[in-house]
Amino acid sequence: MKQAGFPLGILLLFWVSYITDFSLVLLIKGGTLSGTDTYQSLVNKTFGFPGYLLLSVLQFLYPFIVDPENLFIGRHFIIVLSTIVFTLPLSLYRDIAKLGKISLISTVLTTVILGIAMARVISLGPHIPKTEDAWVFAKPNAIQAIGVMSFAFICHHNCFLVYGSLEERTVAKWSRIIHVSTLVSVLISILFATCGYLTFTGFTQGDLFENYCRNDDLVTFGRFCYGVTVILTYPIECFVTREVIANVFFGGNLSSVFHIIVTVVIITIATFVSLLIDCLGIVLELNGVLCAAPLIFIIPSACYLKLSEEPRTHSDKIMSCVMLPIGAVVMVVGFVMAVTNPQDCTHGQEMFYCFPDNVSHTNISVSHFQLTTQLSVLNISTFQ
Q: Which of 110, 121, 315 is nearest to 200 (CA)?
């Protein structure tokens, strides 16, 4: 919302969710047309080894560009401990269907976090100064916003794994599941985006939790819930990365020993990366434009266009022809903008409004009454 402008951001969220819904169904249609049951085999049959290799690189890189946690109080210790105790054991599962039940807990916790964000937009929002351009319709960084939104909706790299776990494997059944899932996802995303932006407007950080003050106990509980959701969902990403390695280097099968070794190596490298990065904004942007955009926009469209024998005027072909160049533009332009104009990052430092003395140092006029009320809301012990 901060990058795109609030009204345009809402529209873009709906648009990206629609593209996601369409491309997920398109992938399974492509798999049915080609007689394949994995994303990699679909691309391999459609574009040969070069396409297979490119997709493998994108699927492999996706989990490594993700920064698992952003808890700055002892974050290194917390990341290592949670990885060893929880993430690694869960990532050793061989059956993705078993991870589905675990992910359900993550979904429940997401609603808890959303409830916290909604509560704070009411109790905290009125006491945070609003930036001057908070309500403009559109901003020049909209393409960067599309990259972040694409990251939020990307699940194409494991859609064949999920499809394979269904008891009834039909395109119609898959389409119904995707329509409902995407609708729920976009509603949750809009609520999060709206609550976060209404609370902090132009001060919104790449990681919304960086905007809240550290002594806010309710938000601290939300941070804990967020950490748990990542711990419970990351194994699914590890599952995909491990499958890529198995297909490329081991002919699709891993022995029990190599299964453990490969999993440990993946988790170790990903954990090491997360220890070095504490800015979630640039992570989301780069992941969105470099991995999510081709996996959502480009590859599904290209595969369907080459495999389908439908006439050129068919709606799926027309939509695919539109998606492919848009994805290329988002990927190239988004990458350039992400590098030249990265999102703000506090590196774990508290925002100025958590220390009311600093408000006078800004160019924003805040009344004495607002500050007094804000102190009671934020419970700053220094000024009690």
A: 121
